[in-house]
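To the team - adenosine-5'-triphosphate complex, inputs and output below.
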Amino acid sequence: MFFRLLMESFRRQRRRKALAGLAILLGTTAVTAMLALATTIGDRIQQELTSYGANIVVYPAADQLEVKVGGVDIKPVPGGAYLHESDLAKLRGIFWANNITGVSPELPIHILGKTAIGADVDASATGLWFDHALSSGGAPLKTGAVGLHPWWKLAGAWPQEQHTTAQNAEAVIGATLAERLKVKAGDEIQVAGQPGNASQALTLHLTGVVSTGDAIENQILLPLNAAQTIAGTPNAVRRVEVSARTKPEDAFGRKDPDTLSAKQREIWYCRPYANSIAYQIREALPGSRAEQIRRVEQSEGTVLKRISGLMWLISAAALLAAAFAVSAAMATAILERQTEIGLMRSLGASKTTVAMLFYAEAGLLAIFAGGLGYLAGSGLAAWLGARIFATDGGVRLGSLLIPVLFPVVVTLALVVAIAGSTPAIRRALTTDPSAILRGSV
Amino acid sequence: MENPIDLETRPDCAVIALHSVTREYTGHAGTVRALDHASFSIVAGEWVAITGPSGSGKSTLVNLIGCLDRPTAGELRIDGEDVAKMSATELDRFRADKIGFIFQQFHLIPYLSALENIMLAQYFHSMTDEKEARAALERVGMGHRAEHLPSELSGGEQQRVCIARALINNPPILLADEPTGNLDAANQKIVAELLQDLHAHGHTIVMVTHDPEMAGLAQRKIALSHGKVFCHPVGGPVVSLRK
Ligand SMILES: Nc1ncnc2c1ncn2[C@@H]1O[C@H](COP(=O)(O)OP(=O)(O)OP(=O)(O)O)[C@@H](O)[C@H]1O
Ligand SMILES: [Mg+2]
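Output:
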């Protein structure tokens, strides 16, 4: 009978219930979307943010501080102060190796040569990894300058380091330089060997034109191995940019590990601060200095914190709004049924029984609306994910139907519905049933 | 039934006994004394009409007897039990057991059929029994309309369903607040006959009415005026609860 009463009564007052249901639906949609984004896509945000640049830079210890103007290293290239490319694999062996998401070694060189139509070439160039498999036995990390500079725009293809031979190599050319030299993808540049060292002449095959928005547009970018060949400095690396997932810096993170007690030092070492990762890099690469690029690292942390803070705020606001809407809808719905309540009470129904009926109704509504909200929210999350994180082709819908969220969301909907209808139910039950039946209400 | 029972010597016979019952409503506009030291009793099997002008406290009295409300002062015993001493839950239980309500506005649940409305009363009392519920509808001549919704029934028919519902749990007391107030002459007659039939079968009926014709059917009239029991009809003794 209770069930029958519940079902029949549930089907009544459709408009009021639709209103309350809609409020729950919207609230749970927002919450589902936010939770889905916060849980699954949290990692993705992190990835996105870290991919917006390196946060640790490594250079030879013998070097002076790097002097960069407009993204170009203007310090004269001194002889001898190099890191070894072959050492970089050791980065895969440090304590926080798995937090290192990108490694990009650089070797700046100078190129003298001629284009196919005979124009003189006198330009800066940088040897880079484009898509290099960095491995120390385990699963290799596919990384390089392209991954660390997602904003680089390329017309054509990136050079392939496997195609580098003693006489030939691929390269891309900065848009400005390409215009000045009147070359395009498919053209060749004959590079002359430089007298006085092991430098070697070779032919650069241009595979694309790159726009970077900075001074690199005046350069040629070529595989590291080709740059080493041209400069006659095998295995040499001038500078390495490292992108690592780090813990936002706090006071402890800023401490100099050499001033800490052994125990404190160990704690410091085992936290993924940019500083401690840099410290470990220094340990791993002989003759290196590694320092964090503080600006990037910190903004990452705050952006992440702000985004998730905002998400929670929106979720809480959506739920609160839903509770108020439910409260308003239930207040009128129950007011309309005061006589019914009075009647049930006169038939011997206790307050608890009547409250149970209304709560069951609200609960049923919450389960329906919450279930729909879960689906809608998952869809919304997929859509948002695809829009916000479009760089890697978006997120598949299937991956965002997170089953664990279903009970969470339905429970939240229940809490909202029950909390929202409590004031109305309480008021209805404290009203004297005799007054209701007398017809004075 | 015409022999008056000597209540002075057998006060325990009274199924309803009021001793100096007062009910005051305190609102923002001050205190209204809706019932003022009312004392009387009603014995089992009696049919009592409560009359009086509007606002004299009739509904207040019915609600007190129906355990929907409690007196501000005085003693009210229903079927020998002191209502004031009961907890809210006990009172709910007690009401389901002892009282059958018949309302002027019928108060049938609009989304339940006639039969289900009766089964609801069974549900709140104990457990549903469809056969019994159908029998109750037959009893009031509504067996053929069991599956109809209240909106598909006339006022008189609704009132008959309401009476069937009031009877379903065999309560010792039937409380009717203007049972014919919303009915035309023809339907009033049907309901009146039904009540007469119930009375003949020994039901105790307490009925509020404005209608002199209906009041005339009762054995005894209790007139209220400004909350005071104004007049006792001949043969209706006032019962003292003190033995
Ligand atoms: N909840 C309440 N709060 C304040 N005053 C009330 C309340 N209920 C009833 N009263 C007052 O108590 C008095 C008696 O009311 P009651 O409803 O018992 O009258 P009645 O005899 O049933 O009248 P009617 O014939 O119009 O139904 C009235 O003056 C009424 O205004
Ligand atoms: Mg009245």
